[in-house]
Amino acid sequence: MLTQIDTGDIALDGVKGTGGRKRLTMLVTSAGRRVALLQAFRRGAEQLGVELELLACDLEPDLSAACHVADEAFAVPPATDDGYVDELLAICRRRHVQLVIPTIDPDLEPLANAHDRFNTLGAEIAASAPAVIDIARDKLKTAEFLAAQGVPTPRTETLAAVRENPGSWTWPVLLKPRHGSSGRAVSIVQSPADLPPGEDEPMIVQTLLHGEEWTVSIYIDNAGRLRAVVPHRRIKIRAGEVEKGVTRRAPRLIEIGEKIAAALPGARGVLCYQAMVSPDGAANVFEINARFGGGYPLADHAGAAFARWLIEARLGMPSSAGNDWTEDVVMLRYDAAIFVEP
User: Fold this and answer.
1) Could you tell me how many helices (H) and strands (E) the chain has, helices first?
2) Using the 8-state DSSP alphabet, how is residue 22 labeled?
3) Which residue of 156, 236, 268, 312 could cross-link 317, Cys pair, CB 3.0 to 4.6 Å?
């Protein structure tokens, strides 16, 4: 169940900044277009009176909007590269980074597995345990986990299994990468004859759901206590991210969030799940993300300030985390630009 606590977690070294203020140096990985996320951390630090040095990295920082709004940016290899973790460790060592924020799925596994190496440098990885990431990164394992917890989820099988027994399915179905994200390579397959003959990567098939799509953001503190569950309805989606959304206190979705948080082994920090709510009110969960969702700025604006809470936790400050956020807050995203002079 949700926990309201006024005191902070374990006190950590509070590095002093200008005028005796606490100081935090943090690194956002695969920053890409996450300008609003960086702004949320800046806003949280300002509210806390914390002097924040905000670093970012990306494959091509010169072409990353978020890297241009950071205090400093670094070029790093892809998360799948053998040297990726070593490059991040070098940045953390050189710049005395205290907090590392992963933003995309491929970052999660290598960073979580190197948790102790970063901790040795005083750089805390804001991510759940590897067991949680293993479930969230694999859509087949996600479906199996949800079913085992009694959480409604669409029927999910490998593409190979569906090819062997197509008559047991109701068509059309949804085809997607087993380890995909951001809506990449997701398609509706009308009939067994339309299934692809091969796989460039592992694929799964799911029952095609209908209804309203929701994202539910979850915050769990370092002691494993659930502090907030924030549903928002995805009114309009573009390129896999919410473009227009609204916060709602949807009791069934909050209950599911509590169940998922309690069952995930070693869940910490920020997570979210996605669900489809049918016209009769039934909810089916089809995805778990062990990171900030793309729609997090809506939750932050509504008062669920996960970014500020992560700063408080890292600096050993009293925690303001709680489930007291505002319903019916609407987010209407628009295109903006970062201009870089020659």
Assistant:
1) 11, 15
2) B
3) 312
Letter for the amino acid at 170? T
Q: Given 3.40.190.10, 3.10.180.10, 3.30.470.20, 3.90.1150.190, which CATH number is that of 18-136+211-332?
A: 3.30.470.20
Sign of the dihedral defined by the CA atoms of residues 312, 313, 316, 319, in that order: positive
- pTM of the predicted structure, to 2 decimals: 0.93
Rounded distance between C-alpha atoms, residue 308 and residue 314, angstroms: 10
Mean pLDDT taken over the chain? 93
The answer to whether residue 208 scores a pLDDT higher than 70 is: yes
Provide mean pLDDT across the span 314-338.
Answer: 97
Selected from 3.30.1490.20, 3.40.190.10, 3.20.20.70, 3.40.50.720, the CATH number assigned to the domain covering 155-207 reads 3.30.1490.20
Other CB atoms within 10 A of residue 244 CB: 16
Going from the C-alpha of 74 to that of each of 44, 67, 71, 90, 143, the distances in angstroms are 23, 8, 11, 11, 37
Q: Which two tokens stand for residue 282?
A: 């039934």
Percent of residues, the chain, with pLDDT higher than 70: 94
Residue identified by tokens 């917890």 is: 149
Rounded CA gap, 179 and 160, in Å? 16
Q: Give the gyration radius of the chain's Cα atoms.
A: 20
